[in-house]
Every structure is written in C-alpha cells, then in structure tokens.
Amino acid sequence: MQKVAILYDASQAVLSTFDLDEVLRQILNIARDYFHLQKASILLLDKEKNELYPHSQIGWEDQTFDTRIKMGSGIIGAAAQQKRPVYSADISKDPRFTIAASGTRSELAIPLMVRDEIVGVLDCHSEKSGHFDSETTDLLTLFSTQASMALQNAQLHSLERRRAQQLRAINDVARQMTGVLERKELLTKLCPLVQQAFHVSHVSVLLKEDDNLVVRAHHGTLTPVISENHRVPVESGLYGKALLEGKSLIANDFQNAAGGPDLYRETASRMCIPLVSFGQNLGVLVVDSDQPGAFNDEDAQPLESVADICATAIQNANYVERVKQLAYLDGLTGIFNRRYFELRLAEEMERARRFSSSMTIVIIDIDHFKRLNDEFGHLLGDEVLRQVSSIFHQNVRKIDVVCRYGGEEFAILFSQTDPNFAVEIAEKLRRTVESWQFPGVSRPVTISAGVATFPGHGSTRDEVVKAADAGLYAAKQAGRNRVILTASPEAKPATTVAAV
Predict the structure, then answer these.
(1) Whether 192 and 299 share a structural domain
(2) Phi then psi dihedrals of residue 484, to 5 deg
(3) What is the pLDDT of residues 288-303, one digit of tens each?
(4) What is Dmax (Cα atoms) for the chain?
(5) How many folded domains does the chain comprise?
(6) What pTM, to 2 d.p., does this model score?
(7) Quick one: 469 and 344 in the same domain?
(8) How far is C-alpha 381 from the geometric centre of its chain's CA atoms?
(9) d(CA 161, CA 400)
(10) Residue 330 lies in a domain
C-alpha cells in the first residue's frame, strides 16, 4: 500500500505542470528520492535522426552524459527499440553497456511511450549490482507510464504555446509589411522582425537577379563572411537548391554538410524557404542558427507563411518601383527624362556637399534638328533621337545619368567628376555622333554641348544648369559641333572652347 501511495504521489507531481523542463526535473527528483537512485537521466527521441539524446540528468555532477544513442544501440537503445524495460544487473558482465558512469554497477532503461510511440527513455543507474528487483522495476515502469503522459502533455503545451507565438509573429509580420512600398525599407524591417519573432540567430533575404542570388538584406548575431550585395550563382548552396526545387529545405548539421562558411561564420543549422509570388520565384528567405539541430519540419509551415507574406510585399514593392521607373523614363528613347534628372541632380549636389567633392553636368543639343526633321521626316528624326540616346548611354560609366532634357536636348550627370574629365567624355560623344551613319540620313549629324560643374559654377541647381546652358549657347554661337566648358565666375575669358 505504501508503494501504491508513493506511485500516486509521484504521478500527481509530474502531472501538476505543463512546463517541459519542470516535468523532466520532477521525474528525475522522484526517481532519486522515491526509488533511491544515484544517477538518472532522461533521453528524448530525435525522430528525424532516429536517435536518443540526453535532455535532463541528475547525479552526474562528476561527469556529463551528452552522447547520442542510436535506436537499438546499448541498453538505452535496446529499451527504445524493443519498447520494454531492459535491465543489466551487472554492467561489468554485459557487453551492451556503452555509457560508462563512474560507480555504476547496474542499469535499468525504461522506455517512455504514449500510445505505443516512443517519446524517450528513463535511464536509471545504481552503484549496487542487482539493485533493481522485479517489484522496483514494475513500479518504475508504472511511474514511467505516468511520466510519459506528463511529458507528452508538456510537449503538446509547449508546441501549442510555440504555435501561438508563431501565429502572433506571422500577424505582426503581415501588419508591418502592409503599406511598405519601398523595397529597401521593406527588407530592412523584415529581417530583424523575423529574427526576433522566431528566436533564430540570423535572417537573410536573397533575391533572384538574372542568374544570381543577391544578398539584399540580413540581420542577426552571426559574423558575416560576405560583403554587401554579395552575389552567388543561382544554383549554388542550399538556398539555390531550395529556389530551383521550389520547396523549403533544412540542413541541421550545416558545418559538416557544407564546404565551409558561405554567408556567416557560425552557422550550424539552416532553413531556406523560397519566396514565390503568383508562380514567380523572387528569391529565398534564409534562416540560420548557431545551434546544430535547430530546425524541424514543424518550423517550416509558419516560416513559409511569413515567406508568402514577404514575397507578396516584395512583388508589390517591385511593381511600385517599375511604375516609378516608367514615370522617370522618356517614352521615345527609353532613357531617363527631365524629371529624373532634376531628382538626381539634387541628390548628387547634396552628396558632393557632404563629401566635399564635385559633380559635373553636360547639356547637349542636336544641331539643326528642325532642319533634319523637315528634310528627312519626323520618323527618321525620332530614330536619330533614339540612336543618339543609345550612343550616349553606351559611352558613359554606369554611375553616370543620361537623360532626355526635352525635344532634341539631352543632359548627362557625371557623379564625383571634375569638369576636365566630363569635357573629354563629351568630346568623345561629339566625335562618335559626327562619324555615325544614321540610316536614311545622307549627311552627318552633329551635336553641341555645354559643361558646368558644382560647386565651381554655382551652389544651387539653377546656377549650375544656367552655367551649362551658357556653355551650350556659346558652342552654338561659335559654329556648333563643339564642346565648351563654361569658365568659372572668377576666370577670364568667360568660356573655354574644347578642341573640335
């Protein structure tokens, strides 16, 4: 009767809480206090690897039991595989004994099961040979049944709590992503939001651009081994495989699976979730942890929901960006229009002020364009505008901005450039246009250009543009087909004519 009372008290204790760690602590304390065990540990089942791993232990102060046990291996693995208690009365004579604990003479491993499914093993050690008689084994087995139920209840409670947290995180992501139409701002907000909500080490967004995946944003505690806007071939790495296969992929032993750190130095586990919107692969959401075995299939669903929200938001931001680009593009030539030039001019002047540098603008006009239209027709005139635009675009740097300023007039903005360099490029453009064979136009087409610089020719947008216009006017007055750098206000004469 006393033992039944002990079993009842023990069962009540382990069933009194839903906290997983507290349940495990109660199980081990009861094993020690009620059953007088010197050492006891609880191993839980890793279903993905089909291994048992130590989660909690008591009485092992002199050493740490941290070895993973394969199903069927040793006394512990045998108990899990056979789904029944396995007892070794004298471990020195038992070849199955694998976990060497100082002082252990006998070991009893009892499976923790719920509805015939293994959830773990209660492993009991004694310093006495033959310590576990049949009555003690039966009581421990009955207690383990109650402990298994408590363990499963705690795991379910933990899972439901985690799912509730994840649902709140998904809603939070959706709420904060709604209305953010700038892609850079969107990604900057997204990464820390996911990192904090899902308690992972690092979050990255890799977007597909041509045949590459480009790291457009990342946030977390890991050490990057990449530079900003790092590019990788679209087929490389776990992220590339996830994108190409169109499904979430997990690597829980990343250090051994990979050839070395590819994004972050301490990555031990990684989950990659494709970003897909209306059937279009936009990129990959990459979630990293510095702990091995950090992710499981149950983590994929909430993160996939987040990825779907993000993909839609990214697609919306891309549409907005395209609309903006169309608003800044000239419909005939396909290059930027005057509105964009005004915007970038203000930005580049502010940049030049901040870094005490200079910038230069060139305003260009096609000579006698009205006569060309009258002589060859407006269709050929439009083709001349398109081809001149193409010549300009192909012969300047990527950081320079080519715009159609209006009619047959163009403007080029040279960032962080002194006027002499701009004059050289403008002169090259002049020579190229003069020698170009325009289809249907039987005579040479020429251009004139005026060059001005900030801050040499003024401290405001109007002053610099006015100076470039003055150079263009001087070029026209001097006979056209030439480039003129307007003299600075202190210099004499007022203009300098570049070599024709």
Answers:
(1) yes
(2) -130, 130
(3) 999 888 888 877 888 8
(4) 119
(5) 3
(6) 0.53
(7) yes
(8) 48
(9) 54
(10) no
